[in-house]
Amino acid sequence: MKKWISYKPELQNKNFDVIIIGSGMSGLTTAVLLAQNNYKVLVLEKHFKVGGFTHTFKRNQYEWDVGIHYIGEVHNKKSHTRKLFDKITGGKLEWSKMDNNYDRIIFPDQSYDFIAPKESFIKKLCEYFPEEKSAINNYISILNVQSKNSKKFFASKLLPKWLYPLVGRKMTKNFFKNSDKTTSEALDEITNNKKLQSVLTGQWGDYGLPPKRSSFAMHAMVARHYLDGANYPIGGSRMIGEYATDLLESLGGKVVVNADVSEIIVKNNKAIGVKLENGNELMAKKVVSSAGVVNTINTFLRNYSKSKEKKLQLNKVQPTESYVCLYIGLNKTAEELNLKTTNLWIYPGYDHDQNVINYQSDPNGEFPVVYISFPSAKDPDWNKNHPGCATMEAITLGRWDWYKEWEQKPWKKRGESYEKFKESISNKILDVVYKNVPQIKNAMDYYELSTPLSVRDMAHYPQGEMYGLDHTSKRFRQDWLRPKSGIKNLFVTGQDITTVGLTSALFSGLLTASAITNKNLMKSI
Fold it and tell me: Is it true that the peptide bond before 117 is cis, omega within 30 degrees of 0?
């Protein structure tokens, strides 16, 4: 495991072309692409590890990813996604293809397997719903069309503001036809079969909103992303950050941890550097924030003369819900326990929106969803690096309000009442896990729950948000969510300017680097 370099005040005496705040997927992608175009880059990370949601953590002999569960398309070496991953990791990052049955959608009466490739997906769904064959094929066609239209939508984010009314509206017109609809509204136009609709939206946890609240554009991009299968990084997700930083440093770039940015320094409507919590000031020709638009506007630009105008923009969007994750350690191997790579999505009923409403009004009720992932089964290097054991992760919704009484208390020192509350949630999740994966009960060795407070402290989302900004229909109409911030030499990257997910964060880095260099870097892949 790579040892990260901590910030030292001597960096104040160095000159940089670009300072990037945050070392998540978008920040690292931006950094590497800029370094490949001869920019001198410094990446500042508040945490003691690099990687954002790609980093891992260890307890005893166990190691867990904090945010990466499966990635589509990268098994195809000709795909844009694979080419971009190769470009920012020097081609060193390797992927392991998961079982063709990548997701299983589980309801009380029946489970439904999502199977790759696309032809198998269609065939299996038609077996479940033989009378809906035409609707299923129509659904797949619409996913493909929406994905194609999304490319022009994201490309429009690079247009100058003066050009957008002339060109951008034409580029985005077809995208908005479906993005303006909720997932539920779009599916109503395809089929009246509510059970089929519920199955098709069984991955809604991948983008954080149930069907009546999410934009169909977001659903379409996620669903299509996995149709040809899913993959997992060999060696775990931390390899992404390690390979990317190795390449960045070989190009003269620098990454430091324990570097807590307090403010972006703006003078005469021009970003000139950053100020750290310790008072140190670092100067650069350009600044990039990959810390999310809420953090960027509310925290880093709090002293900016026009911050009120920026905050008005935030009124048009809202953060996603928070979540909890139970990290599980087992004292037997995945092979001994017959654990597969298939992800499980477990629901109490077919009405996803009502499930969420019920739980939010009664936290003692059934979880609206429990997602179970088996990282040690997905990683072919696991047994070599962690012999004799296995890991699981079980994720469900949380609510920030349920944790407010402990929000001012420090990490690992929140008191007995907090630990009791966590234990009650943990045991409730374990009941669901044991029901669906009963063979692990006798191998249970360790478990630990992360809460919205954990996410706030580690990922720095103010309310422990799952995916930054909500992916509603309204969100995609916010044309200010683009790499250029409106402040000269200040740029933004990350899932807030594109959409949720590792791949989206990857491509947001490509957009931001293109905006800085004034080059279409997509051509390079």
Answer: yes
H or E stretch at 397: strand 390-397
Last residue of a domain, one of 459, 492, 515: 459
The rounded distance, in Å, linking the Cα atoms of 340 and 433 is 14
Residue 495 tokens, joined? 């899932």
DSSP at 485: -
Q: Which domain holds residue 128?
A: 99-228
Q: List, for residues 334-382, the tens digit of each pLDDT value.
A: 999 999 999 999 999 999 999 999 998 888 899 999 999 999 999 999 9
| Nearest Cα residue to 216 out of 457, 13, 430, 471 | 471
Mean pLDDT of the chain: 94
- Last residue in a domain, options 201, 228, 255: 228
Which CATH number fits the domain that encloses residue 262? Answer: 3.50.50.60
Paired tokens of 315: 């009124």
**Domain-located, residue 75:** no
Structural domains of the chain, count: 3
Residue 136, in any domain of the structure: yes
Cα distance between the two ends of the chain: 29
C-alpha dist (Å) from residue 507 to 80, 145, 188, 483: 10, 19, 31, 11
pTM as predicted? 0.95
User: Taking CA 271 as the corner, what is the angle to CA 266 and CA 273, rounded to the nearest 5 degrees?
Assistant: 90
Alpha carbon 104 to its chain centroid, in Å, reads: 20
Cβ pair 448, 59 in contact under 8 A: yes
Are 296 and 325 part of one and the same domain? no
Q: 293: Cβ–Cβ under 8 A, 6 or more apart, which residues?
A: 314, 317, 468, 469, 481, 492, 494, 496, 497
Amino acid in position 372? I
3-state secondary structure (DSSP) of residue 371: strand
Q: Are residues 294 and 331 in the same domain?
A: no
Q: Count of CB atoms within 10 A of residue 75's CB?
A: 18
